[in-house]
Specification:
- By secondary structure, the chain is an alpha+beta fold.
- The chain folds into two domains: 118 residues, Gcn5-related N-acetyltransferase (GNAT) (Aminopeptidase), CATH 3.40.630.30; 146 residues, Aminopeptidase, CATH 3.40.630.30.
- Helices cover 28% and strands 34% of the residues.
- The chain is built from seven helices and 14 strands.
- The strands form two sheets. A nine-stranded mixed beta sheet has the order 5-7-14-8-13-12-11-10-9. Strands 1-3-4-6-2 form a five-stranded antiparallel beta sheet.
- It is elongated.
- It starts with 5 loop residues before the first strand and ends with a strand.
């Protein structure tokens, strides 16, 4: 039961500063590894807040994107508000809203034990983990481009076709929508596409960080896989990194149960860092 002095309501744009303060000053904050910041999701629902004595004391954001798939983008609560008081009313209201939008799966990548405890107590099941790998430039070797394939830098006009490749290459949980890919492209350090006479068959999109580059997205159409296209895209990225003096390594993450991806990165000189983060899934009733 919600505490008597708590008020639940949808977040609005005017809440931006209060939510930002919660994220900045509170210890118990879950933020999704996302192209958009939690504040950029304001205006999308479900994005809910709890007010205590007129001030925002907790927030939960999990708008679907792509449709039917909802990642928990933000959960934060004031240290003076116990988590049993914060999570249940927010989650109950969020589930109602997600049901109205026909979103059937809710997911979260966890980095903190306190949030794992909340999820497991509320019907979320651990399905796999995200594992981190890295490549150091001293292991560079040539990776040829397959016959009939052309690699070139990605442009903004390519994004609808890139979204088609993405949708064909991943199951719904891991797909990126066109708006998400557009946001990712705006933050890219280096992005490239692979095409043949029929059109786009693959792409990679990488971002920069203080230690080097991060291969944030790699996709090849299923019918074009096994031909060395993914290796060529990564190899091209490696050569781009080696041309830049400040890029000493490339990192990437993938699912712990994705044997083909792990095999590809291992073949190309990537090694596990030891970091891994569980993925929790809540399957809504239909």
């Amino acid at each position: 039961m919600m505490e008597a002095n708590l008020r639940l309501r949808p977040a609005v744009l005017a809440d931006q500063q209060q939510i930002a303060d919660l994220i900045l000053f509170q210890q118990q904050v879950h933020r999704h590894l996302d192209w958009r910041t939690p504040l950029e999701w304001l205006g999308c629902q479900p994005y809910l807040v709890l007010e205590k004595d007129g001030c925002i004391a907790a927030a939960l954001a999990c708008p679907p994107d792509p449709p039917a798939i909802s990642w928990i983008r933000l959960f934060v609560f004031d240290s003076n508000l116990s988590d049993p008081s914060a999570w249940p009313p927010l989650w109950h209201a969020a589930r109602r809203e997600l049901a109205s939008q026909q979103a059937t799966k809710v997911a979260a990548i966890t980095t903190q034990p306190w949030f794992e405890s909340i999820l497991t107590s509320n019907g979320f099941v651990s399905s796999q983990s995200i594992v981190m790998l890295e490549w150091n430039r001293q292991t560079l070797k040539p990776w040829p481009v397959p016959a009939g394939i052309t690699l070139r830098p990605m442009t903004a006009s390519d994004l609808p076709c890139v979204a088609d490749v993405d949708a064909a290459s991943f199951e719904p949980l891991w797909q990126n929508s066109l708006p998400a890919l557009s946001k990712a492209f705006s933050q890219a350090l280096y992005a490239s596409v692979a095409e043949n006479e029929s059109g786009f068959v693959g792409y990679q999109l990488s971002t920069g960080n203080p230690l080097g580059a991060h291969l944030a997205r790699l996709a090849v159409r299923p019918e074009a896989q096994g031909r060395g296209i993914a290796s060529a895209l990564i190899g091209d990225l490696m050569h781009q990194a080696c041309r830049a003096e400040n890029l000493s390594r490339i990192t990437v993450n993938t699912q712990s149960d994705n044997a083909s991806s792990l095999g590809l990165y291992g073949k190309m000189g990537f090694r596990k860092t030891g970091e891994q983060y569980p993925v929790y899934i809540y399957q809504a009733e239909v």
